[in-house]
Each structure stands twice: as structure tokens, then as C-alpha cells.
Predict the structure of Protein kinase domain-containing protein.
Amino acid sequence: MAFLWKAMGLLEAVPGFPYTPSSGVGSTTAATPTLTWTMRPGVGSEDGRDVTIFSINLSKADSSVKELARHAMKRAKSLLLPGLLRCYGAAEHQETVYIATEPCEPLKTQLLQSSDASSDEDGDEEEAFLESVALGLKAVGTALTALHRNNFVHGNVSSDSVFVITGGEWRLFGLELATTFNEPHSIYQRYASLLPELRRPPETLQLNYETGMHISNVDSWGLACLIYEVLGVPREESRSQFE
């Protein structure tokens, strides 16, 4: 299996990370305004379980990317809640962060496929698509409810942070900004400026926002933006649609 790790720039397996990239399968990029991950199908070396391996190389990254990637790894391992993408294991080795999750693909990939096929859809197919969207949004809502009940805010809800698992179910991920409610100098407060303005509630754009912080409404705004993104409203028009 060493040649599989060489394809990822490593000479050996990652210590404490019993997952190996699958052979003969290419990678996918999952990009958000905060981080860009490489996704590869993989398999558990101990139990043969199918996984998706997220990785990000930090050797040339600035301090903010390093902090966000390590924070995402920490939250992925600790926040095992309904509606979140299930993390099976994570590790950092040779300045690269690895996260193994249940098999998935970016929601954006499926949305692009649906968009390409939209001209050929009949009424039944359109209804099936809308039903899948409704179920997907319900799953995201379940994840946010679980986070909030545990005193966490996600902070990065969008089509970039949603993934589709086997069977077509949606799962929320992208935990690099996840923080506890009203945490002083939280990672969300320090890096929310990396997000497009249309994905941030108007009050968070105010200069004095950090002095009167209360970010429990951030996910409500993000969920609303996700609904518009999924249903085909261009992102650059999202804010004008809300105002």
C-alpha cells in the first residue's frame, strides 16, 4: 500500500490513521472561502470500511489556514452529532491534516449534475428533486439543532459545507469555524471576515460587532442562504433577495 501514500506525497502510512486511499481513483477538491480540501475515496486498513479521506497540506500555508484546518480536525473528532458528516478518525502528519469520514461527495457536485439535466426533466423528476432538497434541508436543520443544544454554532453553513452520503442523504461538515456560544475571541469572530458578506448576517458586518457578540443567529442566516443557493438563486444576488 506504500505506493498509494506516495501518490499523496508520503513515503509511509500516517501513524494513528488506519485508512488508505483507494487505488485507481482520482481526487476531488472541496473548496470553501476558508479552506480547500482534497477528497479521495479510501478504505480502512483494519476493518475494510469504505471512507472518504479529506486532506490539506499545511507546509506552505499561512498561520490562519493552519489554525482553521487543525480546528476543523478537532471538531470533526469531537462533534459526533446527528446530521453531521460522521468522522471515523483524523490525524496530522508531516504538515498535512487527514480526516476520514463516511463515504461522501460535495453537494455542489450533485447540484451541478441536476442543473445540467434540468432541461430534460419532466414534472415527476422535478418533484423528486424538490423532495430530496426538502429532506436534505431537514437533515441540515437536525445537525444545527444538535449543535445548538450542545452550545455550539456552526458558523459556516452553505452549499460548500454540505456533503451527500450513500443513499442521497445530506450531511453538514466544514467545521473550521464551529465555536461555542458567546466564546470570547472565538475562531468565528477572528475569521468570519474570510466569508463572503452575503453569507454573514448584517449585524456581523458592523465595526463594533465584536464588542457586542452574540452569534447564535449566524446559522439561521446561513441556512437561509443555503436554501437560496440550492434552489438556484445566484450567490451574488442572495443578499439583495433578503433585503
Observations:
- The chain is about 35% helix and 20% strand.
- Confidence is low (pLDDT under 50) at residues 1-7, 235-243.
- Residues 105-239 form a domain with the Transferase(Phosphotransferase); domain 1 fold (CATH 1.10.510.10).
